Amino acid sequence: MNLLEINMDQNQIQQITDRISHKLESKGVSPDRQSITDKLSSYINEFGVVPYEAERKVLSDQMRLFDIPEDDVSSAPSSVPEGGVYSLSDIQPGEWVTVEVKVVSLQTPSSPSIAQTGVLADSSGAVRFVVFSKASEIPPLELEQWYRIESAVVDSFREVPSLKLHSGSRVTPITDDRSLMPAPPVSLSELTPGVAASVQVKFVEEWEARSDRILQTGLVADGSGKMKFILWKDEGREKLTLGSVYNIFYASVDTFGGRLSLTLNSGVWMEDEDTEIAVPVVAPAPKGDLPVTSVRDLHVGYVTVQVKFVEEWESRSERMLQTGLLGDETGRIKFVLWKDDTKEKLVPGKVYLIKNAKVAEYNGRLSLSLNSAEYLVVDGADDMVVQGAAPSSPLPVTNIRDLSVGFASLHVKFVEEWESRSERMLQTGLLGDETGRIKFVLWKDDTKEKLVPGKVYLIKNAKVAEYNGRLSLSLNSAEYLVVDGADDMVVQGAAPSSPLPVTNIRDLSVGFASLHVKFVEEWESRSERMLQTGLLGDETGRIKFVLWKDDTKEKLEPGRVYHITNAKVDEYNGRLSVVLNSAVYEADDPAADIAVGTVLDSYAGTIVQISGGSGLVKRCPVEGCNRVLSRQNFCPIHEIQNNYNYDLRIKAVLDDGQKAYNVLMGREVTEALTGMTMDQAIDLASESPLGLEEVQAQFTEKLCGRYVRCFGNDFEGRILVKSAEFIHLDPSVTAELMNRAGSVSGGEINE
Q1: What torsion, rounded to 10 degrees, do the Cα atoms 241, 243, 249, 254 define?
Q2: Residue 134 and residue 227 in one domain
């Protein structure tokens, strides 16, 4: 028996730390490398999480910390098929697989780190593949050749599987005569992200390329609908012929903005001269004038409308001449006018009769394209009433708490000014009254002046809009004037007048708080308005702080301990941060120090189930693996391992009466909670006829029905416990929870 404690080499963990850090630094942030290393060590060495899963989890957490968008990568293992060879349709992200496939497409790699990329296919489907440059022992794959590929890793991007060939993969040419029968065509409406084995479509509309890298783009269609396609410039590629029918094999199906599109560079196609496809087409522009339709009654096709030019927007494309909002008494609609020597811009505020404009739909919203239309000003109609337009007389004053979409008058204080993120924006920030706060925006307008921070304003007929479930004010349609002598107006959430007691970071909530913390790490400021930002910490965790430029404020000194009184605590994307501008802070003695911990969540409940795989387990000794072995000492990656390492753990279900949690306790927590050391567990297993199962049986006897408080963090739906303690509970409550245990299913932890 190998009694060595599992411990992934720190150099390897440091390599993973470097990879994560480099990815984050490429996004312009400065991560806490030591925190990353500590998390990796905990996941891999303490909890036995597979290294690549640990890397993915830590990277994901860091990206959320810095508000960096990320792609969700799932891992759902499946069973190994008979014979060990997977069909491409059955592979799942996170698996190491053996496949027998044909190279149906090769593409030019986009990075020096990639040796080859393209598409592999078998009779069940097709996937993209990548061969990394470091895998120098893998010979170049040849087009139209069959291969047996062993130990390929199934990766995922935007939930689409792909195969990664690395230095551990084995590639063997298949010399026997095999044929790959083309799959029957799939309709466009049935496509999903990935690789389309076969589609039969008609090229119905060609669009102007917006990039020098694009060879051709437009719409293809079949009887089920239409789809955008794109063909990037690539040596040997020729354009499709408008109006022709094509059989296209192994094109990539991508998704953007909720819509699918075809990328043809990965595929091959043949014109089918003997086939005609009836495709849904938009009716051609009418030859005569259509009757006037209200905005509320518009539909895809062509229409005539009488509308007022309500609002002009900044054009986001060099091809766009003008865009904005048109409206009548029934509603509003976006319009676009593309650059055309025959077209002139519309005049804001004027009413137009627009004949035979094209109505299109995108993401469930209609819009007007005016390039096919004729439009002329309707004289004397500038007073046309538009739905949602600003009222002609002042509205009564409304509290922020009672606002709704539309227009409103308010009596508010200018609480906080923010940095403008657009050249078109004159000013933005927060306004507040005794009932709440709201964001405002003031766009550049020669008739408007900036508001003065700290002043109280009467704002008449401001526009109230909603975005992502939050209301905001646009002041360009409003009249606003200072209310003299009202600067002492009380605003909800304003800083308290007296010092608050000190709160641990773990116990913070939105509002104001006093802290006793250490300045752990300074980050590079992303804004010219920011004086300083970084991490503060105490014994219970760490939290981001921001200090905005203010002549009355000085920077904190990294490494010093501070008393911070009445700091503002904000929340963004579920994470708290501290703003120090409203606070008073003073440094402790230079010798003062705090042992900074990490934030741990608390979970209290009854252990209602000890799940399989608990107790004494055997782990794969191969460096960087650590997977739990089967009863036959089998590792799913490295096969039979007789020189295994032992580990001790508990997988359990914790029920708090409202929710059941899957929890995982590593060796240290398990020993503390059960009173059984790993050496004792090994001796017990050696002496008992039940072997390893005896340890799990005793853990079940010791823990089931006991009320426990666990401290840890969620790892993809499982609580990794850092510490745990027994607490006493009324026996009747425990009995009630245990009665529910029969309906609780313990989730398995990915090894």
Answers
A1: 100
A2: no
Three-state secondary structure call for residue 616: strand
Q: Which tokens belong to 340?
A: 């055309």
**Position of tokens 């006018």?**
337
**Residues 482 and 455 sit within 8 Å (Cβ to Cβ):** yes
- Distance of alpha carbon 226 from alpha carbon 218, whole angstroms: 10
Number of residues assigned to the chain: 751
Q: Contact 703/717 with Cβ under 8 angstroms?
A: no
Q: CA 35, CA 58: separation in Å to the nearest integer?
A: 10
pLDDT in tens, 540-560: 888 889 998 877 889 999 999
Q: Are 672 and 721 in contact (CB under 8 A)?
A: no
Mean pLDDT of 151-155: 79
Q: What is the pLDDT of residue 743?
A: 44
| Domain extent at residue 557 | 505-587
Confidence of residue 173 (pLDDT cuts 50, 70, 90): very high
CATH number of the domain that 169 lies in? 2.40.50.140
Query: How far apart, in whole angstroms, are the C-alpha atoms of residue 361 and residue 601?
Result: 46
Per-residue DSSP letter, 43: I
Listed ranges 73-87, 148-162, 649-663; the one with the highest mean pLDDT:
649-663
CA 361 vs CA 12, 301, 329, 402, 482: distances in Å: 52, 10, 21, 34, 44
194/246 same-domain check: yes
Q: 92 pLDDT band (50/70/90 cuts)?
A: confident
Tens-place pLDDT, residues 220-242 = 988 888 889 999 887 778 889 98
Q: Radius of gyration (Cα) for the chain, nearest Å?
A: 32
